[in-house]
Amino acid sequence: MLKYIVTGAAQGIGFEIVKSILLQGNYVIWNDINQEQIDQAKAQLHHLGLYQFSCICADASSDEFLDSLSILIDETPGTLAGCVCNAGITTFGDFWSYTKESLDHILKINIKGTFFLAQLVAQKLRDAGNGGSILLMSSVTGHQAHPDLAAYGMTKAALNQLAKNLVIDLSPFQIRINTISPGATLTERTLSDQDYIKEWSAITPLGYPATVEDIANAALFFLSPLSKHITGQFLVIDGGWTSVGIPPK
């Protein structure tokens, strides 16, 4: 049995990735910062007959989370094979009034949290000597400008470059690292906007936003042997939106 780690996984894309990995018969260690959402996610997984997981309620960028994760990696069943660094936040704000506090917060979660999670998992994979796959969660805003998302887009672009740089460090140990960049995706958060589907369907060349299953399928590809010769790359999943550059209204 293989074992994977997924952060920010009580809802949306992260939850779908966890569910998909479990349905393949693997073990998953996952986390979220919201205990109520964790409880709801656990109930959904149990309803599907899925029990081979552990979860941690913690900020994925905190030392406490990394310490707990390190222990669970060693104590839970399965061979560690990969990680999806999915935890992140989105903050909207125009460049002229964006605050230092907001920037510190988004850098801590999106950059520091991802960096040190990848570092911990890579160390565990290196020590085990079996190779593996680390997947970073970027965004179309890391490839193309979007109104009021300068800070967020900057952090997501940084993750694409991090994956490229870490090819140097990780490849000698057969550890692959890539990023996926979702575009408009139907999640609990986006569906709270009653105009979301209509607006993004109108400006997406394929005519509809992605589902969480679309993103999870790409994640599973990068975690699997099907992508065994792919590293340092990014995959944009946006129905063609970044190709035509139509901005949202």
Structure report:
The chain has one domain (2-240): NAD(P)-binding Rossmann-like Domain (Rossmann fold, 3-Layer(aba) Sandwich), CATH 3.40.50. The chain has eight helices and nine strands. It has helices at residues 12-23, 35-47, 63-75, 100-128, 150-170, 196-203, 212-223, 241-244; strands at 2-6, 27-32, 53-57, 79-85, 132-137, 175-182, 185-186, 210-211, 234-237. The strands form two sheets. The protein has a seven-stranded parallel beta sheet, sandwiched between helices. Helix 4 links the parallel strand 4 and strand 5 (132-137). Helix 1 (12-23) packs across helix 7 (212-223) and helix 4 (100-128) runs parallel beside helix 5 (150-170). This is 3-oxoacyl-[acyl-carrier-protein] reductase. One of its GO terms (molecular function) is 3-oxoacyl-[acyl-carrier-protein] reductase (NADPH) activity. It comes from Aquirufa nivalisilvae.
User: What is the global morphology?
Assistant: globular
The end-to-end span amounts to 47 Å
**Mean pLDDT across residues:** 96
CATH top level class name = Alpha Beta
Strand content: 15-25%
* SSE succession: EHEHEHEHEHEEHEHEH
Keywords: Oxidoreductase
Family: Belongs to the short-chain dehydrogenases/reductases (SDR) family.
EC number: 1.1.1.100
Pfam family, one: adh_short_C2
